Amino acid sequence: MSEAVEGHEALALLERARESVDPLLRETVETLPLSLRGIAKYHFGWESADGAPAAAAAGKAIRPALVLASARALGGDPGQALRAAVAVELIHNFTLLHDDVIDEDPTRRHRPTAWTVFGAPGAIIAGDALQALAVRMLSEDAHPAARAASERLAACVIELCEGQQADCAFEERGPYEVSLDECLAMATAKTGALLGCACAIGALYAGAGAERTAALDAFGREAGLAFQLIDDLIGIWGDPGRTGKPAGADLVAHKKSLPVVAALASGTPAGAELAELYRGPMTGAAVSRAADAVERAGGRDWAQLQASDRMAAAVQELSRAVPDPGAAGELLILAEFVTRRTR
Amino acid sequence: MSEAVEGHEALALLERARESVDPLLRETVETLPLSLRGIAKYHFGWESADGAPAAAAAGKAIRPALVLASARALGGDPGQALRAAVAVELIHNFTLLHDDVIDEDPTRRHRPTAWTVFGAPGAIIAGDALQALAVRMLSEDAHPAARAASERLAACVIELCEGQQADCAFEERGPYEVSLDECLAMATAKTGALLGCACAIGALYAGAGAERTAALDAFGREAGLAFQLIDDLIGIWGDPGRTGKPAGADLVAHKKSLPVVAALASGTPAGAELAELYRGPMTGAAVSRAADAVERAGGRDWAQLQASDRMAAAVQELSRAVPDPGAAGELLILAEFVTRRTR
After folding, report:
1. Does the pLDDT value for residue A343 go beyond 70?
2. Which of A61, B90, B226, B316 is least surrounded, with the fewest CB atoms within 10 Å of its CB?
3. DSSP secondary structure string, A66-81?
4. B314: domain CATH number?
5. Ordered alpha helix ranges (H), B188-257
6. Among partner residues B119, B128, B155, which is closest to A131 by beta-carbon distance?
7. Domain around B23
């Protein structure tokens, strides 16, 4: 199967997940108090800042798609896991709202971030409300897996918090003070955890036992780490026209992303050059020199290789959880999509 | 019974609740990842900023005490509601962490607030983790009431968010632009909701039906509003030595607290004087003149009368939920304590 065909299939899957989840997601967000609803609807891209209906680019619905595809792969009825898929999407968006405040990110999905429009307090409070909304979704769910899903999702949120806290701490440290292991652990907590949790919840809703649930969790985590590696590559070499962010955005922000830390840890002259650049302000010329240094220090190749390795590990976990290749197909397509995307 | 005796009984009740809840609360907080645990333990007063053990003044444990007393009042076993009491206390502290960031409050319980010590990102993230920890507590609770409690607590968090958002919005508005009704609704959401929810959860754990649960919720809400009115009086006339805050702290912050809004809405010359003062910076002399204006405009008397009225309403709701005065005794003592405290 060609990449183009796979990509097309993945987009169709994501589109279908978005269509399945959106009515319940919107209905749930509509139950928020008026003052918070506007912030949430702006963040989701459904409204402009003044409350007029909008149709901005929504998120890719990867997490809900993973919940539904995991349930289906293990013989469950994805329709029964809709509330859980919405809960996972709400958790994801709560973390986005807070991360944007914390990182002072000005844009998300090609639009000004919620905190720049409604203020940091509004974005913090709306994020808190989305976490509670996710909990309410699962508490109201009569499915026998809802309690285990809620427990798992809460544990995942704590892991996401740990990852975000580590990310903040890294930014305070000098160029040589973050090890590659710490950086991988941070990415696993910050990105892998929720993708793994989405898969595990889908498995729980299909009535899977502990072993298969754990294998699907591991599949999601590995795919999530691959996803993060690609995201970090895009943060340096992504096309601003497609990412909606300036070129080398992560370098400008002095981010200790995975390719950067790999380059710094390389012991090469290019790594030392990068460390020197990272000690100063990252303006136009410095950004392209830094990107070049990451590449010459092997950071770009390392990240690409790691992403492939993580994908291979994901595929192996998937075959443990879902031995039938036919049943595993959708999950495989989703995992390959997120690690091949260019934006 | 004299006030002193009642106060003594209430303190003993709160002390007992604190002793019941603390071991599980501490054990639960210990499960947080290291990077967040320190922030949480500092916030709870168990550690100093450098991680050394501390025994700073903890919160008054009013909410856990209400959970346990409500369960007992309705014939339940408070020991069965311990996890729920811890969950409520975690939610309360998550909101404190975030509110202090949002309001930029420098002190809490006579110590620098967590965000001033660990930075706003750390306090936001630790708060997020405490919300998740509360959810995990209830998800892991095998008691048949746990699901309904979780649903109720999540709905309550959304109401707390609504109240906090309204509070922020009021600060942006001019002296005459907040009505007393809006202000009462805000206080109900911000303070009444969680006290009501604590009582309702205690009722659920005692196996109470919808009607008694609703009456106990209303009891907690009314008592909570009385509590807020007293708190607002303390925010103007409290003794800095006891509150740990500067004199007239709420006036300095231009807070549209209940006595202030009542004074502004009074249509009196003193109310107009207050509005004029609130348009400028609140320095030393202006603070005492503003306090005086609130009093002359009737804001102080109004708040005291409202607090009494709310307490009367609370007592009425309590007698509906728990007709036996003997069984209702503890809840009554707690409610009267919180509305008579002077700090």
Report:
1. no
2. B316
3. HHHHHHHHTT--GGGG
4. 1.10.600.10
5. 193-205, 210-237, 240-243, 249-252
6. B128
7. 3-338
Contacts of B129 in chain A (CB under 8 A): 157-158, 161-162
Residues in B 158-197 with any Cβ partner in A closer than 8 A: 158-159, 161-162, 164-166, 168-169
Choose from A114-118, A337-341, B247-251 the range with maximum mean pLDDT.
Answer: A114-118
SS (HEC) of A193-247: HHHHHHHHHHHHHCCCCHHHHHHHHHHHHHHHHHHHHHHHHHHHHCCHHHHCCCC
B122 touches chain A (CB under 8 A): yes
Q: Which residues, other chains included, contact B290 with Cβ-Cβ below 8 Å and sequence gap of 6+?
A: B248, B251, B274, B277, B278, B282
- Cα–Cα dist B84/B65, whole Å: 11
Residue A343 counted as domain residue: no
Residue A128 in contact with partner chain B when CB distance is under 8 A: yes
Backbone angles phi, psi at A278, to 5 degrees: -70, -15
| Helix (H) and strand (E) counts in chain A | 17, 2
The yes-or-no verdict on residue A189 having pLDDT over 70 is yes
Q: For residue A295, report the phi and psi dihedrals to the nearest 5 degrees.
A: -65, -50
**Which member of B120, B122, B157 has the closest CB to residue A132?**
B157
Contact indicator for A227, A281 with CB cutoff of 8 Å: no
Task: Give me A248's structure tokens.
Answer: 């080398």
Taking CB atoms and an 8 Å limit, are A122 and B168 in contact across chains? yes
Q: Is residue A230 part of a domain?
A: yes
CB contact under 8 A, B161 and A126: yes
Q: Is residue A129 within a helix (H) or strand (E), and if so which, with residue range?
A: helix A120-139
Q: How far is CA B282 from CA A85, B175, B242, in A?
A: 50, 14, 22
Exposed (0-12), middle (13-18) or buried (19+): which is A107, by Cβ within 10 Å?
Answer: middle
Residues with Cβ within 8 Å of residue B134, at least 6 apart in sequence: B86, B87, B88, B90, B91, B94, B153
List, in sequence order, every residue forming a beta bridge with A112; answer none if it has no partner.
Answer: A107
Sequence-separated contacts (24+) of A11-15 with Cβ below 8 Å: A11/A337, A13/A65, A13/A69, A13/A330, A13/A333, A13/A334, A14/A60, A14/A61, A14/A62, A14/A65, A14/A334, A14/A337
Question: How many residues comprise chain B?
Answer: 343
B155 to A165: CB separation less than 8 angstroms, yes or no: no
Inform me whether the C-beta atom of residue B319 falls under 8 Å from chain A C-beta atoms: no
The answer to whether B178 touches B256, Cβ cutoff 8 Å, is yes
- Given a contact cutoff of 8 angstroms between Cβ atoms, the answer to whether A217 and A70 are in contact is no
Chain-chain contact of B32 with A158 (C-beta, under 8 angstroms): yes
Q: Give the model confidence (pLDDT) of B79-133 as tens digits.
A: 999 999 999 999 999 999 999 999 998 989 889 999 999 999 999 999 999 999 9
Q: What is the ipTM of this complex?
A: 0.94
> What six digits make up the tokens of B214?
């609703």
Beta-bridged to residue B47, according to DSSP, are B53
Rounded to the nearest integer, the mean pLDDT of chain A is 93
Q: Check if A147 contacts B (Cβ < 8 Å).
A: yes
Residue type, A223: A
Give Cα separations from A123 to A59, A108, A184, B175 (angstroms): 17, 13, 28, 25
For residue A7, is pLDDT > 80? no
For B229, the token pair is: 């009115």
Whether A204 is covered by a domain: the verdict is yes
Total domains, chain A: 1
- Whether B129 and A164 lie within 8 Å, measured CB to CB: no
Does A125 reside within a domain?
A: yes
Quote the CA–CA distance of B122 and B108 in Å, as a whole number. Answer: 16
